[in-house]
Amino acid sequence: MSKPFVTILIDTYNHDSFIADAINSVLGQDFEVSEREILVVDDGSTDSTPDIVRRFEPQVRLLRKTNGGQASAFNAGIREAQGEIVAFLDGDDYWAKGKLATVTEAFAANPGVGLVGHGLTELFPDGRRRTEWIPRDVCRFRISSVGEARKFRMLRGFLGTSRMAYRRAILHKIGLVPESLKFEADEYLFTLAGFLTEVLILNQPLTFYRLHGGNLYQITHGNDLAARRKYRVIAALAQLLREKLNDYGIPFEIARTVLECVEVEAEGLRLVLDSGFPWETILTELKIMRVFHGDASFLQRLFSCLRLLPAIALPARTYYRWRSYLSRLNFYLNLRKRFMPFPVPRDVKRIEKPAG
What we know:
With 356 residues, the chain is of the alpha/beta class. The chain folds into two domains: 6-210, Spore Coat Polysaccharide Biosynthesis Protein SpsA, Chain A; 224-350, no CATH class. Helix content is 45%, strand content 18%. It is built from 13 helices and twelve strands. The chain has helices at 19-27, 49-54, 70-80, 99-109, 146-155, 168-174, 185-196, 224-248, 252-274, 278-292, 298-307, 316-328, 331-339; strands at residues 6-12, 36-42, 61-64, 85-90, 94-95, 113-123, 129-130, 133-135, 139-141, 165-167, 198-210, 348-350. Strands 1, 2, 3, 4, 5, 6, 7, 9, 10 and 11 form a ten-stranded mixed β-sheet that branches. Strands 8-12 form a two-stranded antiparallel ribbon. β6 (113-123) and β7 form a beta hairpin.
């Protein structure tokens, strides 16, 4: 058998309710069987996931390993991948028809591009679908300046696991993903790739992303154990990226611009979990505004500052609990949408009607 052009790497853990949909979405792609291989890395599932995957053999190759998290699953799959292109898919997501052809055509048309991403459609437990944000146009960048770093910061949401496909040579250049990243291994890869190659973001939603109780990244209200686990991983991600960018010799201002979005998320989680002084809350929230809402108008900035007034007198944990309560009532969301919605980033457009 000749070397396949594309390897589809599906990482999975206890996804017996979803894994068949993921695999079927790959098998249903309009793509020559001889030009692809499908690897499913099972990260020590304790449910019936491996049995379901075996039903698809020999079209699918199952790699079983002890549970170690997303980074260890990625490392195992990348080591076995034979394709020139490696396209990733989480076992609880699935692809839209035409995804694989669209992505591989983008690689073929752009030899200098080593990473391709795109938009997604969210799937809610009640069956609703939402395609809210996609790039306004096809975007292309490489992180070589502060301006390009800011562009990456706004577009990184289009590069998560089920949206990212790499030239295998780029993955080998990055090397092993540190296995302390039980999740967020995707962000480690796509951040470093942005410095090593050109990145292309397609203006189409080509992945269906499930929101459900088993999402490691999503945190339900009051789940401090999950929040603390997320904090540890994101803090580790920030430190690992900082060290790697230092090894790459990336100028300080460029590295800082990229790392800020990870660091501020970690700092916010620390305040939610362990509390802190009022001034820490205010500085963190102002930094979030600067990093993620740099295009906000004067009124929008004023609204955010008014929302911070209680933080002057409240410990951080108390303030965030109060704000979480109001958020569950949709108080801030309704007020902001009615009077001063945050602007859509210039490279992104909002789809007003939910897809489907």
